[in-house]
Amino acid sequence: MKIYTKTGDAGQSSLLGGQRVSKSDPRLEAYGTIDELNAWIGLLKEQEGMETYRDLLTRIQEALFTLGSHLAAENADQVLAWKLPVLPADLVPALELEMDRLDAGLPPLRNFILSGGHPVSAMCQVVRTVCRRAERQAVALTEALPEEGERLAPAIITLNRLSDYLFVLAREILRARGCEATLWNPARGT
User: Which residues, including other chains, have CB under 8 Å from residue 53's CB and lie 6 or more apart?
Assistant: First the structure.
């Protein structure tokens, strides 16, 4: 099987059911950003010192593939017809549990912090911003397709919680590596 098909050369792509749409279609924007997020998580988990978090990050990647397939489906009937895997209901509670565990060892957050302090922590912040963009695009998709809102709601919840987790993970990486967070000083920005 060849990787290139030439079917997208005119700026069109196919949804899961075969419907041809513009590559700027909200569905493609949403699942394309999920794909980007997944790639960034793959890079993050392979960084030195990330062994402790690798299993959960791999689990997140698998869930994102499932989530992307649901965004690529035109409707609930196609989800059933294609026998797509169910979005993992246990991921959000697992992320919350891990955030609580990590947060217990972190100093209370009283200020906004700037990205940086350590390259891996900064990478977590980049991944978090990609996650937030994916979340915004999933919200935009549910607004564009209100009939799909209920079906896609778990995607929004998952992305929201994942971005929170990535923020906590960025802080934990700073703590674990003995690095200080750079606090935002609003007076410097004026």
Answer: 45, 169
Instruction: Work out the number of other CB atoms within 10 angstroms of the CB of residue 170.
Output: 24
- For residue 61, the number of C-alpha atoms closer than 13 Å in the C-beta half-sphere is 16
Tell me, yes or no, if the pTM score tops 0.85: yes
* pLDDT single digits (tens) 147-164: 988 888 999 999 999 999
Q: Which domains does the chain have, with CATH numbers?
A: 20-106+115-177 (1.20.1200.10)
Mean pLDDT (whole number) for 94-104: 98
